TrEMBL record:
BP term (GO), one: spermatogenesis
Protein family (similarity comment): Belongs to the arrestin family.
GO cellular component assignments: endosome; plasma membrane
PANTHER family: ARRESTIN DOMAIN CONTAINING PROTEIN, ARRESTIN DOMAIN-CONTAINING PROTEIN 5
Annotated source species: Crocodylus porosus
Domain of life: Eukaryota
UniProt protein name: Arrestin domain containing 5
SUPFAM superfamilies tied to this protein: E set domains (SSF81296)
Arrestin C-terminal-like domain boundaries: 149-282
InterPro entries xref list: Arrestin-like_C, Arrestin-like_N, Arrestin_C-like, Arrestin_domain-protein, Ig_E-set
Amino acid sequence: MSVVKSIEIVVPEDKVYLAGSSIDGRVVLSLNNTLINPMVKVELIGRGYLQWNEDVGADKDYSRDVVCNNKADYINKTKTFKIEGNWLDSGTHTFDFHFTLPARLPSTFTSRIGYVSYFLLASCSSRELILAKKKKYLLALTTLCLSLAPSMISLVKNIFCPSENVTFTTEIDNQTGKSIKRVVFTLYSNVLYVGFTTRSEPRTLEDRNVLLRLEPRLEAMPFEVTRITNIMSLPSLLPVSCMSLANEIMEIRYELVGTLYLPWSMSSIVARVPVLIGTIPTADMEESGSAPFTRAPSPLLC
C-alpha cells in the first residue's frame, strides 16, 4: 500500500484569474502511514507552445515540409511547505498557499496550432522519490487598456468583455437609386503565430476564423440615409486582444466586418472596425468615432 493515499489542490472552481491578481488555495494531503522526510510543494506554471508544418518549394519540382515551432515560459513559481519535525503522521494534512500572477501575461488560449496554459502542480516526495502529484489547470485573462480609431461602423463602446453584447450602429447612405436589402456582419478572430524552423529562420502563420455572423433585415431606400442597430453576443470565454508580439508567441486581434451588397451588381462595399476584447472596460473608453456607409467610386469586390 502506498504511503500517500491522495493529494488534491483546492481552489475556486471555474474562476477566471486576471493578470496581476492573487491565487489563494490549499493542498490537501492524505496519508495511509507515517511519512519520514517529506517534501510537499506546489508550483504555479504558465507556458505556451506552437507548432505547424510549412510547405517549402511548392512552386518548384520538389517540395518538403518544414516544422515551425516556438515556446515561451510566462511564470514558474514554487512554494515549498515547511514541515515541523520533518515527518507527517497518517491522516489528512492541509497546506495553504498564495501566488500573485504577473501584471503582464497572455490569456489562456488553445487552437490546432498551439496553446497558452496555466496550471498548479502539487507533489509529495520523500528522499527524492515522488510519491504523488496532482495538476490543476487555471483560466487566466490579461488586462487591456487601448482605444479605437474612428470607423465606418459605430460601436457603443471601445472595449468588450467575454459574454457581453457587442452593440453597434451602421449608417447607410444609399445613393444607388435602388433599394439595398442585404448587409452581412461578421466577427473574425485573427491569430498571428510566430515560430522558427530548425535552422532558426523566423516564420509566421495567420489563422483567421469566423466567430459570429449576423444578417439582419434591411430596407435602405434610394437616396436616403438608413441607420440600423444590431447586437452580437460574445462567447463566454475568449482570449483577450493582444496587439504586441513582445515576449509573446502569438498576436490576437478581433475584427467586425460589415459587407453591404449593392443591388443589381456584383460589387459590394466593406467596412471594417477592430473590436477589442478585454477584461475591465474603463469609463474613458465609452466613446468612439463613426462615419457613414457610403457608396464608394471603386467599391471592394467580394
